[in-house]
Request: fold
Amino acid sequence: MSGRTRDPSCPERTCVGCRQRSARKGLLRVVVDGDRCVPDHRGTLPGRGAYVHPTPTCLELAVRRRAFPRALRVQGPLDTGELHQVIGRTES
Reply:
């Protein structure tokens, strides 16, 4: 099955940081609000979403690769401060 989950009812998404496919429930959805990236814990905020593993490593990779503006289809840099706070808090 080449890295995919075997459960057909489990949607998969790709992490914009490490580019690994994972079950959606193991990833954090991120949406754009003005010029900043905000976490969407419930998955109900409107707009295009990008997914990232809730680890500092994947978040840093996504920021370094400028993956959030590309995945969310916006121009210019985005503020990821709120994501750093949320992910840093979950790792502690």
The CA atoms of residues 14 and 78 lie 20 Å apart. The chain has three helices and five strands. The longest strand covers residues 28-33.
